[in-house]
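Supplementary Methods, section 5.1.

A reviewer requested that the exact input to the structure prediction be made available. We therefore reproduce it here, unchanged from the version used in the analyses.
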Amino acid sequence: MMPAMLTTHPSILERLPNEMLAEIVQYIPRKDLLSICTTSRLLSRLSIPFLYRTIYVSDTDIKKLKNILDVMEKYTDTKDPLSRHVHEFWLLLTHESNIPQDICKRLLGTLSGFSNIRRLNLVSHIRDESRLRTFLQTAHFPSLLNFQYITDPIEADDLTVFLNHHPTLTKLLLTCRNTYHCPLGEIRLPCLQQFSGNSCFVKSLVCERTLQIMCIFFAMDELPTVLERLEPMIHPDGHILVVTGVSLDLPVAVRQVADKIPNTMYLIFRDLVEDPALTSEDVNEIETQLKKFKDLGCLELDTVSKSRVYSAMEDEADLAAVEKWGHVCKSLHRVVLHGRHWVYEHPGWEVTDSLSPFEMLLQ
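The structure derived from this sequence is encoded token-by-token as follows.
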């Protein structure tokens, strides 16, 4: 409806102030914006910046990459450069030398001009990319809030410099797939609220009680050390702690968190190496530790294969465990155990298919 209406009555719309037109245009779906661009020069000029708010590029589609660079460079010397309107940029590098040297130079030069970028995602499978290293050393985005960097391996010094150039960051994801020991220098992020990444990066973070959501990927059992490091950085009003990718003794892990960070509101163990089903002693020990938490609302113990089919007796045992934990921890309203999501709905606990808080908050 919108493109047809604009085509039928261009003169009426063009009499509206540009500010009002721009306010209307920003809420129009992308596919309709493409149609609007053909109706008049004015509407095209107002629509183009919104078409480039979010950019996804990959070295698997060089033609698309060149087209985006051509458009960006076309508007570089105008009164209102298009680069100022880019808020999100996603770059995927999959091949060692797939991007020609001249295209790569143009790309990094254009990227450096995104002065209002809010979110930057870099995924690199390249082992030695000096051009990306130079970018990390020199780039500065004054409005950057969200940075995700997935690499293999990592250039620690360059990344340290980049992160310390961006104290505005509130969300940070750092993942190094094949190299566990990736020592970074000290990274000061005074506004950081959410951190996801390898446990080895935690020792480099410095912030003062701003962290609210933490998703830590472990390569080995380092939980006590990481908790010791996290404790002074966590927001006092509660937070979400997600531990993933490690084999550990769950009752001991729950105790370690309860002793060190009792204001945890969501405690989630995900994608763990499979362990046997919890014994009655494990259930009792977890019950004891849950008494220490101040306001725990969700406990997720993802310890066994979701493809396994459980017997009615095992279901009853899970329900008994959940009821025990809920009795001693009155704030607890959700438990994930053996792949099933239990929620408390007065007068008792029942299984649900709804998303966990972890899935909803980190989407």
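Residues 1-8 have pLDDT under 50 and may be disordered. These observations are discussed further in the main text.
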